[in-house]
Each structure stands twice: as structure tokens, then as C-alpha cells.
Amino acid sequence: MQFYTDSFYYHVTLHQSKSSLPYLLMLHGFMGNSHVFDSLMDELKSFCNPITIDLAGHGQTQSPTDPDFYTADRQVHQVTSIIRRLNFENLYLYGYSMGGRLAFQILASHSKLFSGAFIESSHCGIQSDEERLSRQILDEKRAQQIESGFENFIEDWINLPLFQHTPENLKAVYENIMKQQNPEQLAASLRGFGAGMMPEICDQISNLNLPLTLIAGELDHKYVTIMTKLSSQFKSADLHIAEKAGHRVHTDQPKKLIQILKNTIT
Q1: What's the Cα-to-Cα distance from 212 to each of 72, 97, 116, 118, 196, rounded to whole Å?
Q2: Where are the domains of the chain?
Q3: pLDDT digit string (tens) for 107-121?
Q4: Which of 35, 98, 129, 197 has minimal CB crowding within 10 Å?
């Protein structure tokens, strides 16, 4: 399905619609698209109606190359516009990495749209001004690398330590997805919605009044620390640290992730 919002078309897939089951909107990470969740679909469909979306700058979503379209406010408006038109009751939100950052932004102002939320390997913003500036500089460097040598950037990205625990067959899936991306759109995404550009909203959402599940892989030490700290800030959060998983729990320990989702949704 295509949804027109904020002057361009989003690509959205409803994998099934059984009225007796809850719905689960899934937001992928940077350099991904909706297909990164394909290997989970059969099991997910046994207890919910999965909805995947190619976020701005990714996949088949026909995005502009102006970073202004990728700011947190704009993307929240774009995605919630689609959610309201889908008009599903008993809807859960799941976000991984960049998609988790966007999920937090959506929850800050539109939590009543959801019955619960799952955040995998992500955060709700960088608090330190110095760290924010450092990340902005890094993401601008990455954006320039994408524009000047996309194949080399992909090679560097897939070899980052946080992705080394992904099974080889799923590494190949991710690599293929990355090679199909539009470099100019990815660069715009970094400039508009990189972690250093995203507003820090941790205090704003610390009193969320809905079930919140935080998920990290035990081998991803950075995000174990981040998610553990977040779990102490949110009054309604459950924390799950998946054994033998890195940054991508959904590929490294898919059965564990499925069980976490199922225990909350059903």
C-alpha cells in the first residue's frame, strides 16, 4: 500500500488482517527497510497482524532529498498520519535502532494511539550538548561518505562490531537491502534525523502510561547500558537482555524476540 503524506508516498505493508488479533507496527533501523523483518513474519502472524513500513529515506518510500523532511517533528507527523488512516484498534508499536528513536518520538506526543510499545537497541536522545555535537559531526561525515562512495560505506557499515553476531544468511539479506537504497535519501535521513539532530525527550516520556518493553542483546554492551538506564527511568518498563545477541536481537535471537512480543501482545 502507498500512503501520501507531507508531499510524498510511504510504502506500507499489512501482512494480514484478522479482526481477532492485535496489530503490530514495525519500524526498521538505518539502512534497512520493511524486508528486514521477513524472517519473523510467519511466527508473528500466529498472534498478531504485522504492519511494516519503509521509513523516510529508505526502501520503496518515495522520499525527497531535502533533510528538512526528515526531522523528528516531520517524521512523527508523517507516520501518525498513516496510523490514523489505518485506524486499527489494539495497535502495538515496535522500533529497532533508528526506528526505536522514531518510536520514542511518536510516543512522546501520541502514546494514546497504542496499547503498548517495544524498543530494541535504541535510545530517547543524547543529553550532553558536547556528545550531540560530536554525533552531528560524525553523521555529517557519514552522509558525505554515502554520497561519495556508497559501496565503500556499505562495506564499512556491515563490518561494524555491533553487527558481527548476525547469522551469515541474514547478514546477506541486510547487505542486499543496503545495496538497493538511494544514497542521496540516506544522506538526507542522517542530516535530518541522525541521533545528534533528534530532540532529547527522555524526561518527556518517563511517565508513559502504557506497557513499554525494552530489549537489548547481551553482547551489545553499549546498548545494554543504555537500555538498563532507561528501564530505571520509565515507571512502566520491562527490560529484556537477550543472551548471545548483539545489536540486532531480531536476527541474532529471533525466537527470543518473538517470545517477548507474544508474552505482551497475547
Answers
A1: 20, 15, 6, 6, 24
A2: 2-265
A3: 999 999 999 999 999
A4: 129
Q: What sign does the dihedral 78-104-209-220 (CA atoms) show?
A: positive
Are the CB atoms for 58 and 181 separated by under 8 Å? yes
Predicted local distance difference test score (pLDDT) of residue 35: 97
> Rounded to an integer, what distance in angstroms lies between the CA atom of residue 20 and that of residue 213?
23
Amino acid at 243: E
215 sits in which H/E element: strand 212-217
Instruction: Give the residue among 55, 11, 66 at the shortest CA–CA distance from 32.
Output: 55
pLDDT tens column, 78-110: 999 999 999 999 999 999 999 999 999 999 999
* Contact predicate 108/212, CB 8 Å: no
Phi, psi of 33, rounded to the nearest 5 degrees: -155, -170
Q: How many Cα neighbours within 13 Å face the side chain of 156?
A: 8
**If we measure between CA atoms, which residue out of 27, 26, 22, 201 comes closest to residue 107?**
201
Give the whole-angstrom CA distance, residue 194 versus residue 98. Answer: 8
**Helix axis angle, 150-158 relative to 129-148, nearest 10°?**
130
| CB distance 101 to 198 below 8 Å | yes
Q: Which three cell numbers stand for residue 194?
A: 541522525
Cα separation, 57 vs 218, in Å, equals 30
Helix axes 183-193, 72-86, angle to 10 degrees: 110
- The percent of residues in the chain predicted with pLDDT above 70, rounded, is 100
Cell of 216: 537489548
